[in-house]
Amino acid sequence: FLDEIGDLPFSTQVKLLRVLEEKVIERVGDQRPISIDVRIISATNRDLKRLVEQGNFREDLFYRINVIPIHVPPLRERVSDIPLLAEHFFRRIHLKSDKKINGIAKDAMHLLMAHAWPGNVRELKSAFEYAFVTCQGLMIQPRDLPPDVSQDTQLSASDPKTGVSKDAVKKQQLLEALEQAEGN
Predict the structure, then answer these.
(1) Is the full-model pTM beyond 0.85?
(2) Are 18 and 33 in contact (CB under 8 A)?
(3) Dihedral sign, CA of 90, 149, 130, 43?
(4) H, E, C per residue of the chain
(5) Pairwise CA distance, residues 105 & 77, whole Å
(6) pLDDT, tens digit, 9 for 90 and up, residues 69-122
(7) Which of 33, 58, 70, 115 lies at a C-alpha separation of 20 to 30 Å from 138?
(8) Which has the closest alpha carbon to 11: 67, 50, 64, 57?
(9) Which of 28, 62, 173 lies closest to 111 in space, CA to CA?
(10) What is the C-alpha to C-alpha distance for residues 124 and 130, in angstroms, rounded to an integer?
(11) Which residues have CB under 8 Å from 140's CB, separation 6+?
């Protein structure tokens, strides 16, 4: 698995292309060729086609690795995945942690779903690592989330991708706060 292949230096691209074409590698400091039979899976968040057009990525390597392209949209375009991913990261970190945290509060989940997630799934995972460090109660609350998530002011009045308006999020938060305070 080659992660961030779009950031590979040109000199390394040449070497990788040779390995893929000849199916032979040499260990560092060794002269003996070693035959290999592998399949390469690569990932990038960059537009390789554009990099090829700009001359920053080898065209022959692009066609060699672009056999079965899979496009995974950014997390902000997959809002319905956030609760599943959040639960996964919560459980995973909970197993490693000694903290007695029972779950994620609804208003915290609403904030998670409203955030734009420029760092995608890695940012979501980091948000849970942060929350487990800062959480003092039994449930992860909005105050336990990283500041850029809990105080996200970049929401537009209505986000067409999520269908959640900023006013709707505020209203839901107020209703939940009233419920928790038993109307007081």
Answers:
(1) no
(2) no
(3) positive
(4) CECCHHHCCHHHHHHHHHHHHHCEEECCCCCCEEECCCCCCECCCCCHHHHHHHCCCCHHHHHHHCCCCCCCCCHHHCHHHHHHHHHHHHHHHHHHCCCCCCEECHHHHHHHHHCCCCCHHHHHHHHHHHHHHHCCCCEECHHHCCHHHHCCCCCCCECCCCCCEHHHHHHHHHHHHHHHCCCC
(5) 23
(6) 999 899 999 999 999 999 999 999 999 998 899 999 999 999 999 999 999 999
(7) 115
(8) 57
(9) 173
(10) 10
(11) 90, 101, 103, 104, 105, 108, 128, 131, 132
- Taking residue 108's Cβ as centre, other Cβ atoms within 10 Å add up to 25
pLDDT digits (tens, 9 = 90+) for 23-77: 999 999 998 999 999 999 999 989 999 999 999 999 999 999 999 999 989 999 9
Burial class of residue 152 (count of CB atoms within 10 Å of its CB; 0-12, 13-18, 19+): middle
Where residue 43 falls (left for φ over 0; alpha for ψ -120 to 50; beta otherwise) is beta
Q: Which residue matches tokens 């409203």?
A: 114
Instruction: Convert 134-149 to b/e letters by CB count within 10 Å (16 or more is b).
Output: ebeeeebbbbbbbeeb
Cα(182)–Cα(184) distance, integer angstroms: 6
Which amino acid does the sequence have at 171?
K
